[in-house]
Amino acid sequence: MIKFIPTAILMAGLGWTGVIWLVLTVPPTVGPRWLFFLCWFLALSGSMLPVTAYLHIRFPSRVPATQKVILRQSMWVGFYGAALAWLQIGRVLTPAVATMLAVGLIAIEWLLRLRERGQWRG
Known about the structure:
This protein is mainly alpha-helical and 122 residues long.
C-alpha cells in the first residue's frame, strides 16, 4: 500500500487542484469542460487508489492483485465519476442509467479478473 502513496498524492493533488481552479475561475466553455473531466477523473482515481489498495490487502483474493490491477480498479472509479458528470450535463443521468453503467463496469472488471485467474500459474 505504501507503493501507491506517491502516485495517489500526485494524481489526487493535480486533480483536486484542477477541479477547484476550474470551478472557481474559468467559465464553462467547451475547452475547460474537457479539462474538468480530466481533472475530475484524476481526482477520483487518485483518491480511490489507497482505498483500493487497502481493500486488496484486507480482503485478498485467490489470485493476488498486481499493481496494474489496483491502479486499473481505481481508474474505473474515476471513469465512472467522469461519465456520470458528463451524463449530468446532458440531463440524461437517472438512477437506472447510473446503475446500468456501474453494473457494466463491474462486469468488465470481473471478466478481466476472470481472464487473469485463468492465466495465473501459482
